[in-house]
Amino acid sequence: MRFSIDQILAFITTVETGSFSAAARRLKKAQSAVSTAIMNLELDWGVTLFDRNGRYPVLTEEGRVLYRESKQIANRCEELEGKADSMASGIESRLAFAMDELTPPNFTLEAFRRFGREFPKVDLEIFFSTGHVVPELLQTGKASLGLMVPAGKPPEKLRYKLIANLERVAVARADHPLALKGNVTKADLEEHRQLVAYNREGHSMEEDTLFGRDCWRVDSYYVIWDLVRDGIGWAFLPDYMVAGDIASGRLKALPLDFKKAELFIPYYLVWIDEYSLGRAGQWLLKALSEFSLERHSGHHYSGPWSYA
Known about the structure:
Arc Repressor Mutant, subunit A; D-Maltodextrin-Binding Protein, domain 2; elongated; 19% strand; 3 domains; seven-stranded mixed beta sheet; alpha/beta; 11 strands
């Protein structure tokens, strides 16, 4: 390389301050050192950066082009230095987070906003997928922590914490035969196609609510949602997901005459080992743990948001 970062900074500072003397004061160097750095830069690059005929140096056309390029180099060097400082202090340069598709809108946004302010140099990578993929991403090291709705409890190799229960509601399209009944019994449900969430290993996510003799097994709640809205069957879906459709009259919450006291989907924060996380990962783990049911006894998370 025919130039140094000190020469680049001398060049940029002279442009920004308008003179060699002002640049020297900002850089806390002798004016001769700044002038020499820029002259050597001109010799190395083979171009004239400043027109020195007036009282103050004025950028040449070549200087204007190279100033923009120099700013980019300086910014990247600053980013590099910031990342190195973060790593030296135990802050990882990158953090991967795996998020179940059932994560309610806005559930993680406040934590992510605070994370961005707290760790501006950390690159956050977010995977958004069905729940059965989340453990795989953690166990293969592609993600450090995540949120998921498992079929049963999370895999034994994962550390986990129940942080919310997502309320489920039985729904069908407004013109579906079940939606037209005053009361819906178990026998009624058995007569109509049920859409059930299953993972790719064949495990049901809702064994406690299997009623239909004719069941379609789907590995995505969002696909089930679309099928229900098309009138292809009925299903138990998170209330936040269907709230907008129920309010608009497109879907109807089925009036079950046997409804249990509560129908919930357990929602877990999962990770491999908190000691393998850097400072940024540990911070995010703690921030998301603040939603824990242990801290909000008796509270069941049910998002107020709806989808159009």
